[in-house]
Amino acid sequence: MPLDQVDIEKNEKNMSFLDHLEALRWHLMRSVVAIIVFSIVAMVNYRFIFDKIIFAVTKKSFPIYQLFCKLSYTLYGTDKLCFDSIDLNTQNLAVSGQFIYLMVVSFTIGLILSAPYILWEFWRFFKPALKPTEQKYTTGIVLATSLLFFIGVLFGYLVLAPLSVNFFINFKLTDNIVNHFTMQSYVSFVSTLTLASGVVFELPLIVFFLAKLGLVSSDFLKRYRRHAVVIILVLASVITPPDIMSQILLTIPVYLLYEVGIFIAKRIETKEKLNEA
């Protein structure tokens, strides 16, 4: 490690409480600037975002619909699993509704795109307080967290959101009721489902920290595997529409993440035993 870097870390460790608050303020300010920059980029390209991203899930050309259609012809030789484009005419019921949701969507996209930088800023703030061994374990934490989050976001957007939207738009109690959705409810539904999927995909990282703190072990996770499956199924039934296909599509990757968590916990235990020996 360079001598100047050592001096910087020593100075940071000797900082007072107010100095730490000042350092945190600058980390937060840089993070806010990153969010604003990406939000402005999203705002400038609002037509592309709304037409080609948010409302793209209603088109039959969307990737997951095409995949199901190809699968349908492969398995059944018919268009049994094919989707048609959804005739979705959303309504805006507030005078400033469209402008407000332009701000909301732009901020959400800015937050998602700037997430790796924000995590890096927070890691820089906490790094001086970590021991050398702890710094070693957290070196790739920003990359791992960002990667898992983006994979989850893509899974939520490409798989969960279109299937859920398709189900709820076509679900009818009776022909006497016509489905008309507000722009606010549609945008909130798609964005919430997408972000929730990104958070759920952080499961292996959560297990990593819990295992490092000694709060969970691989034996504990294996012992309660059946309970975890039940919880995952309940979670899938809450997040996704009540059709078996959507629930399976969420259950399988989350369960695989749980198994990855067991593997991570086992590796941590093995390394700690080797260090003790």
Main attributes?
277 residues; mainly alpha; 75% helix; flat
Question: How is this structure best described in words?
Answer:
75% of the residues lie in helices and 0% in strands. The protein has 277 residues and is an all-alpha fold. The protein folds into two domains: 3-201, no CATH class; 203-277. Helix 5 packs antiparallel against helix 7 and helix 9 (203-212) packs parallel to helix 12 (244-276). Residues 1-10 have low confidence and may be disordered.
Number of domains: 2
- The sequence of SSEs as H and E is HHHHHHHHHHHH
Shape: flat
- State the end-to-end CA separation: 28 Å
Low-pLDDT stretches: 1-10
- Nearest-integer average pLDDT: 80
Work out the radius of gyration: 23 Å
Topology at a glance:
Elements lengths: L2 H11 L3 H28 L1 H9 L8 H13 L21 H30 L5 H6 L3 H30 L12 H18 L2 H10 L5 H6 L1 H15 L4 H33 L1
Summarize the structure.
Helices cover 75% and strands 0% of the residues.
